[in-house]
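Field log, afternoon session.

UNIT: design team B
ACTIVITY: writing a sequence onto a fixed backbone
BACKBONE:
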């Protein structure tokens, strides 16, 4: 499906984090719809290194990009010598997805250096190449502010959220000096869909709960899950937002959600309906403090300036996802 009149054929497109969930979906979107586009993935891929929370330092996985025909550049956004590899190219479009995407990494130094410092490099690269730059911000910038979450009212509550907030400020300041550039940030809410499996424990609750059910285990939910509501958005709608951001009528940061909050309990109910099961739910206490209890994206500006219109309800997204969810059951992670 084409979302804009822009012809990406014969354009140089850089996707950082292209071996990850959202980045790989973007790469395949361009490959399918603009076969003559030149697509470059820049990603450090996964190593065996972990953070103190036990999660991998990066989740990029070659399996996410099996079938991708463009160029893959293995590099780390923290290393100048790796970034310099990109100086061999001039990009028309940069989609900057690479980041520590794990919201529960609390090492402030490493989160800030990885997510923020590198962003300055990509802003300058966009200026040099006169590229359109679309980057991933996050709903985590809102912390636990009440719904609906609205652009301009942010209060991050963890290093990850703060790093994305700092990127938004940096982009805004950079644009004051470079008003002719097109730089658009997208605050993704809770994204789910094919390509997230290799995010391991940081993948969405949709796939985690589905795999519990498919393994014939009781789906596990926090106590009071019917009252924990989030704005879950299907990957195809996130791709739509990224593409439409290239045509945005205004620079700035925009929310990417459905605008409709749904509960974790509803995810289980929809999954059980789709999978034809009726397993009892096992409830357990929520161990987290600073947990977002209610998110609902205010997408009025996204509608107005990007013509963004989410197409998938939670029911539609899960239905579209279920074949992939089954396919990924018990796939070895390594
Ligand atoms: N998925 C969501 O629900 C969600 C929500 C809000 C924001 N985001 C943001 O969207 C972007 C993409 O998220 P995702 O869900 O695809 O996560 P992901 O972890 O699957 O993708 C991130 C990619 O970046 C790569 N990467 C990490 N550190 C790197 C480094 N130092 N150098 C080079 N590459 C590096 C990883 O290998 C991975 O392939 C991230 O910036 C994330 O913070 C995602």
């Amino acid at each position: 499906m084409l979302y804009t009149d822009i012809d990406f054929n014969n354009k140089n497109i850089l996707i950082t984090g292209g071996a990850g969930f959202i980045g790989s979906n973007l790469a395949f979107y361009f490959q399918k719809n603009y076969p003559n586009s030149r697509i470059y993935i820049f990603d450090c891929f996964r190593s065996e290194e972990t953070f103190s929370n036990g999660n991998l330092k990066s989740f990029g996985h070659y399996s996410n990009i099996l079938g991708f025909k463009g160029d893959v550049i293995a590099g780390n956004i923290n290393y100048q010598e790796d970034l310099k590899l990109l100086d061999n190219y001039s990009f028309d479009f940069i989609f900057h997805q690479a980041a520590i995407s794990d919201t529960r990494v609390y090492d402030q130094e490493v989160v800030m250096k990885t997510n923020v410092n590198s962003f300055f490099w990509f802003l300058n690269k966009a200026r040099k190449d006169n590229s359109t730059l679309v980057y991933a911000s996050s709903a985590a910038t809102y912390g636990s502010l009440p719904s609906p979450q609205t652009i301009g009212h942010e209060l991050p509550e963890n290093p990850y959220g703060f790093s994305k907030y700092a990127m938004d400020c940096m982009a805004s300041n950079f644009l004051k000096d470079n008003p002719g550039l097109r730089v658009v940030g997208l605050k993704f809410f809770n994204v789910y869909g094919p390509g997230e499996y290799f995010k391991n424990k940081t993948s969405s609750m949709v796939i985690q709960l589905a795999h519990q059910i498919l393994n014939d285990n009781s789906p596990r939910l926090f106590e009071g899950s019917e009252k924990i509501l989030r704005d879950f958005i299907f990957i195809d709608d996130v791709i739509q937002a990224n593409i439409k951001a290239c045509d945005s009528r205004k620079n700035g940061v925009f929310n990417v959600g459905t605008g409709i909050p749904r509960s974790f309990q509803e995810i289980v109910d929809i999954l059980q309906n789709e999978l034809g099961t009726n397993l009892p739910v096992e409830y357990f206490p929520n161990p987290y403090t600073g947990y977002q209890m209610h998110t609902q994206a205010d997408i009025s500006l996204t509608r107005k300036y990007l013509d963004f219109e989410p197409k998938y309800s939670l029911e539609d997204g899960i239905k579209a996802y279920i074949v992939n969810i089954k396919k990924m059951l018990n796939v070895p992670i390594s």
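LOG NOTE: The mean pLDDT is 96.
NEXT ACTIVITY: expression trials, pending approval
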